[in-house]
Amino acid sequence: xxxxxxxxxxxxxxxxxxxxxxxxxxxxxxxxxxxxxxxxxxxxxxxxxxxxxxxxxxxxxxxxxxxxxxxxxxxxxxxxxxxxxxxxxxxxxxxxxxxxxxxxxxxxxxxxxxxxxxxxxxxxxxxxxxxxxxxxxxxxxxxxxxxxxxxxxxxxxxxxxxxxxxxxxxxxxxxxxxxxxxxxxxxxxxxxxxxxxxxxxxxxx
Length: 205
Fold this sequence. Notes:
The chain has helices at about 1-25, 40-55, 75-95, 130-135, 145-150, 155-165; strands spanning about 35-40, 60-65, 70-75, 100-110, 115-120, 170-175, 180-190, 195, 200. By secondary structure, the chain is α+β, with helices and mostly antiparallel strands.
């Protein structure tokens, strides 16, 4: 009974937080912060949150970072973590066996801007073109049968897309039924590398 109460409480908290985030975004009251953070710590946090569910299903969970991706960045680690956690949670939810991989690479880098591309790929049930067309609409999931079987508020992906847009990025989906899905998004951050001899220090730009 305690486990059921805890699970129900967490589900209710997720619904409340999602509704509050949507309300803030629609009212223009949600700001993207710019602070120093460590990308490895963000990824570690995503892994920690979903570790139990991943282990319960026996899934393989991988990170694939391109060598040129800097670890010390300027941006909003909380919102980046929210995006990755939401997308990865969906991947775990819709994958019964196989692999989930988060990949990161550099799309563009200038003196002031670093554009990173993130990919959350799974070997799950996949999506049709019709289902994909519905994904980013508030309170709507791929179809009602998925809502009944897997649960969810229908708000997560809406919030994800709006957060990505606020970070000057975009998101797309590559998927086929029965062959898994790949959610690919890019966002703008800033690299905070400052070289002094052989020491790399992180500072605000």
